[in-house]
Amino acid sequence: RLSCIRNNVWLACFGVVSAGLAVLSSFGLMLFCGVPFVVTVANAPFLILGVGVDDMFIMIASWEHSSRKVKSDVKSRLAETYAEAALSVTITTLTDVLAFFIGTWTSFSSVRSFCLYTGTAFVFCYIYTMTFFGAIIVLNHKREQGNRHWLTCMPVKVDDDEAQKSCLYNACCIGNCSRQSSQAEGDHPMSIFFKKYYGPFFTNKWVKILVVLLYGAYLGGSIYGCTKIREGIDLRNLAQDDSYVIPYYDDNDKYFSEYGPRIMVVVTESVDYWNETVRLEIENCTQNLE
């Protein structure tokens, strides 16, 4: 928002901080418990940031919608916010946690460590969203009710006749939040689009049939793609940092990568190696393979 009162920059920043705290708490707990830290774990913060920011948007949207039902009581508004947002946040977190904790059953120790770190981080992300970020929402609401600037938190003038001369001064130094308590804000243009156009379009009978057919084609293509997928991961990243496999792959890439894969020839039946003719045949066979 352009209003120096209604601007929620700090609210968004603390939503990202909440995800960062979840990562720090998870990593600290796992390291304290002695879980090995491998290079694949470094990708976990990006996953947590995505889920944490998504939960942040859900909480803020639910808080804004609660103003239409409860206009003055902060406790009632926060309760209404949790009643609307907590269910979707809980379900998404639960599915993510289950997915990663199931991954701990693998025999790869590095994958097991990655799943432990990430799954635990999702748990902490949920806890911080339900506690820390909820408190930040209330503090931001109190700042708005106190008519304080979004950056400096200093009281802002409600009206100033001289301010009309400067658009910059009017945007940065004047504002009020009184209209929020007297009447709820209108629907966001994106909400209007989904409510009036997108939703009715997809509830049409023929559109439903088309969607089912398209999903069937997508599902078939996905199954076919899974049968053609090839391994593309660097195997050395699946080993622990002190594993003998890492120097093996490093030396193999350094000294033997230009020759390609090694080929072995196995003779599966009894051969008269004492016979010179047989030895010549084997030698000729080897030369032909080369």
TrEMBL record:
Q: Which domain of life is it from?
A: Eukaryota
- Give the protein family: Belongs to the patched family.
Q: What does the record say about its membrane topology? A: Multi-pass membrane protein
Which key words are in the record?
Glycoprotein, Membrane, Transmembrane, Transmembrane helix
Native organism is Scopus umbretta
Cell compartment(s), UniProt: Membrane
Pfam families named in the record: Patched
InterPro entries in alphabetical order:
Patched_domain-protein, PTHD_SSD, SSD
Its recorded name reads: PTHD3 protein
Annotated Gene Ontology cellular component terms? membrane
Q: What is its main location?
A: membrane
Q: Record keywords: Membrane included?
A: yes
Bilayer-crossing residues are 9-38, 44-64, 85-105, 117-139, 206-225
Domain called SSD: residue spans:
1-139
Q: Cite the source lineage.
A: Eukaryota, Metazoa, Chordata, Craniata, Vertebrata
